[in-house]
Design brief:
alpha/beta; Rossmann fold; 2 domains; 7-stranded mixed beta sheet
Length: about 375
């Protein structure tokens, strides 16, 4: 079982065994979580650095932020722990180049929730992980799944750069949108996924329902949508029932349902649709994907819409969410794709059914 998992030693075990100085590259929430894990594991941190152009003589978490050029001038051999997310091609190329000069590890820490992703964690969930691996619909998905799991264990960059898919690959080869989609966008942000859909359908669609809980994001979303016919926006969280939930509003994409925060409305997809058709359903809801799936379960079971679901917010998402999708509707074929991103963000589950319910003008 789990023969596709070749990594045994975790990122943290490898760092703990290091004798060379260890420097964190980057600042922010990711660095805070990584520093906390390193303290728990009693892994010494020599300091923090940033790209030369971003250093302005400031401190972070009690460490002076240094320039990479200064460190390289002082020390030939040190270990780099990447502590921020990278998605631009130029920055990914810079990180890859840096990994050729120094040992570079990318610890996997959950965006939401706690715990560390290790080989032992995988062994604890071996049955679930093996089941997901075997139910994946194509060899690329199985290789991608193995790569992501091995990355999450080891923090080795090559697992993320070995196999990547472009948005064109995903939209044209997996999702294959039609000109008559009823699109429910959970975590609509400022309309980026809606833009993508319109790009691939040349602006044609049947209906769009966009859900975005963050006030600032919602304002930008509604400005983008304007008075476009057949588009309805809701400022609420996606959840399993209609209720209220505490919500932590942060800058950009990091707003999420939280233990702390002001209460906001939450809606289920099933209640939003009120029995009407959905043909394409996206979920990027910062760790609430499980609850959002349950809230869409009647629609998923009845209409089998194409699903696009983030798999990277919680440790357990990588196996729990695919199993839940198949539980709700066993007819789905499951695919996993990873678009260019370091760490393993933008690792998504795509669920496709051969004979979904077809949208028509009577389903409004």
């Amino acid at each position: 079982m789990l023969e596709f998992l070749t990594e045994k030693e975790s990122t943290w075990e490898r760092l703990k065994a290091e004798t060379r100085p260890i420097y964190l590259y980057g600042m922010g929430d990711g660095a805070v979580r990584i520093l906390s894990a390193m303290r728990t594991m009693q892994i010494p941190v020599a300091g923090i650095f940033a790209s030369d152009e971003f250093v302005r003589g400031h401190d972070f978490a009690g460490y002076p932020v240094r320039k990479l050029s200064e460190l390289e001038a002082e020390c030939d051999d040190f270990v780099i722990v990447l502590a921020f997310a990278v998605c631009s091609p130029a920055m990914i190329a810079r990180i890859v180049d840096l990994s050729k000069r120094h040992m570079l590890l990318v610890p996997d820490v959950p965006v939401i929730g706690g715990g560390l992703f290790t080989r032992a964690y995988c062994e604890e969930h071996a049955d679930e992980i093996q089941t997901v691996y075997q139910m994946l619909a194509d060899e690329r998905s199985r290789r991608m799944y193995a790569n992501i799991l091995n990355f999450k264990i080891s923090g080795k960059l090559e697992y993320l750069t070995d196999m990547v898919d472009s948005k064109d690959d995903v939209w044209n080869r997996v999702i294959r949108p039609t000109n008559n989609e009823t699109f429910v966008d959970l975590g609509a942000y400022t309309g980026d996924s809606i833009r993508e859909l319109l790009d691939y359908t040349h602006g044609k669609f049947h209906r769009i329902i966009a859900v975005e809980p963050d006030k600032k994001n919602y304002k930008k979303l509604t400005k983008f949508v304007g008075d476009t016919p057949s588009v309805k926006c809701y400022q609420c969280a996606a959840w399993c029932i209609d209720t209220e939930v505490p919500f932590a509003s942060k800058a950009g994409r990091q707003s999420a349902v939280s233990m702390e925060g002001a209460s906001i409305p939450a809606r289920s997809v099933d209640n939003l649709l009120a029995g009407n058709v959905v043909t394409l359903l996206k979920m990027d809801v910062e760790g609430a994907e499980r609850e959002a799936l349950w809230g869409a379960s009647r629609s998923i079971a009845r209409y089998a819409p194409k699903l696009m679901i983030s798999l990277y917010h919680r440790n357990e998402d990588i196996f729990e969410l695919p199993l839940l999708v198949k539980r709700i509707n066993p007819r789905y074929r499951l695919y996993i794709r990873h678009m260019p991103y370091i760490p393993a963000w933008e690792t998504n589950l795509y669920a496709i059914c051969d004979h979904p319910t077809v949208n028509d003008s009577t389903a409004t």
